[in-house]
Amino acid sequence: MRRPAGPPSRTVALLTANRSAVPCARTHPSIRSISELTTNPTSPRSSSEKKGKALSLAAEGSEPEPAAATAMSSALGVGGKEGPSAFSVDLVAAARRLLAFLRAGPPGVGRRSVRRYEELWLPLAVAEGGEGGGGGGEAPMLVPPPDVHLVWLCHCFHHSYSVYCLSRFGRLIDRPSILDAENEEYAEERCRDVWAAHYPSEPFDLHRNEIDGNSDDDIAYANANSEIVEMVRRYAGLAAHFASPFVREGVYHVAARRRYVCFLDLMKKVVGTTQDQTRLVPSLDILLMWLAHLSFPASYATDMVAMAISDNIAKMGVGYGEVVTDEVLKRTRALWEEAYDVPYDMAGSEVEMAAVRAAREAFYWAPAASDEDANRLYKSLQPRFLMEVYVFLKGESDKEHINKEFLRLRTQRCHRSLKLNKSMANLSCKNWQKTWHLYCEFATRGLLIEVRRTTTGCFRNSKFLKNISFSWSDMLHEKALALTEELEVRMRAMASITPPVQAPYLLKCVPDRVTDDGGAMISDVILRMRNYRPQEGRWLTRTVLDHGGRECFVIRMRQRDLAERC
């Protein structure tokens, strides 16, 4: 059983669900389980109007894509209709398969794998593809060995891949559109037979010791393409970059796809309005969609030509692993907010991962959300679901009492004593500013932001003026995973969340009564009832409570007397 995480850093707060009922889903929250969380809460105080509401998300990415510039703002905000499909590949399914491969792929490859990719796999793909594989037909349904597959993906991620294929083979070699595990398994078995027929002396799978010896210093493979070797090195940390468990959720992919469309549209706008060389830095979710799109070269090339940005995206987009200045980051955020009137850094969609990596690791998200973790084995214990929350504010206040007014953040249920206050005098800003960064349990239901005014009196020191609320269920029904509310006439508040993921059990041990061998409490009352016959044995008792204050089990420890110890 995993221990509860330590205290978070100063910039974040952890809101747990003390004395509350939690959702009864016992598996890792997928689209289906998130629908259960939002439509069937176990709390008796849940509103009845939520019970019949269906989750308005496409579980497997079957919803239409926003394409026109007029649909960009609605794609990021709350509501609005979407335009026609913008991509020739299902990016939600592609992102899911990419993440699955990165989690299960080989830990690292080197020059031998690069040679196998260049000298063995690419000619084989051309031979089996015939006139397909990017030359007007379908790519062959073949999946190469894992080490070769990783090199192929890293090569596809780079903008020079199409030029390389055209110069060497005269056409673009595309990857097959395999978006489910069953077809991928079939394609790998078929490729195993084809590989054995073409290269009987070369093993299809490299054993672990062969992969470990697949180093850059191997003299036998010193003639491997150094540019491709450098690409593989550059993307070595990609799996760790997407390690946060909420990145695997389907609702996260749907929201990321919408932001990716806006990112491409922003590139198109910047090219048409600026003369200088402006570069845009993708956030975590946009980078995931971009790499998933790049992993299918033919579809990517077709889509970029259709959107009229094929000549600029490689120059303007900052790729994974590139080092940029703070000015480039600020410029990206400013252009995004100017175009769509929403903040660029949303919950789970950061540009600078170092700012949140330490806080996320403190909650053991990745181990607890894994399918084989111990937090899934104890069916008698209620699971807890954790999410990351950003609260933004934008606007100005011109009231005469601004110096006496402040905002108070509270939860909709549990933690009645939690009061996070911010002075209104320090919150006036023309741009969106991140005011609170929280980690909340789903059972807290949501957040309340109150506008209050300081007063003088014996019984209270502030007066309630107005409040707004953000419900987790309502936000999960939004495809952007965010909601905006009017706080005042000239001030707005926005809350953004990540999909809830299963967190470690949070248990508390409290002392209970001391009993004898028969389970009776040791006390003078029991002695009198038994005519002062001595009670035999002494057992120390501890009651274990879960995060909701429910009794999970009781631990009894027998305390030996002095004679037994001697």
* Low-confidence residue ranges: 1-12, 19-33, 38-84
Global geometry: flat
User: Helical region count?
Assistant: 20
* Computed CA radius of gyration, to the nearest angstrom: 29 Å
- Sheet with the most strands? 6 strands, mixed
Number of strands: 13
| Mean of pLDDT | 77
Pfam families: GRDP-like
InterPro entries: GRDP-like (IPR009836)
Characterization of this structure:
It is a single chain. By secondary structure, the protein is an alpha+beta fold. Among the domains are: 109-235, no CATH class; 508-565, no CATH class. It is 35% helix and 17% strand. The chain has 20 helices and 13 strands. The protein has helices at 31-39, 72-76, 91-104, 111-129, 146-157, 161-169, 181-198, 208-212, 226-234, 238-241, 250-273, 284-294, 297-306, 313-316, 326-340, 354-361, 365-369, 472-477, 524-529, 562-565; strands at residues 12-15, 384-395, 405-411, 420-423, 429-441, 446-454, 462-471, 482-488, 491-497, 501-503, 508-511, 539-545, 551-558. The strands form three sheets. Strands 1, 2, 5, 8, 9 and 10 form a six-stranded mixed beta sheet that branches. Helix 5 crosses helix 9 (226-234) and helix 11 (250-273) packs across helix 12. The protein is flat, with a radius of gyration of 29 Å. The chain starts with 11 loop residues before the first strand and ends with a helix. The model is unreliable at 1-12, 19-33 and 38-84 (pLDDT under 50). Residues 16-68 are annotated as: Disordered. Residues 30-46 have a biased composition (Polar residues). Residues 58-68 have a biased composition (Low complexity).
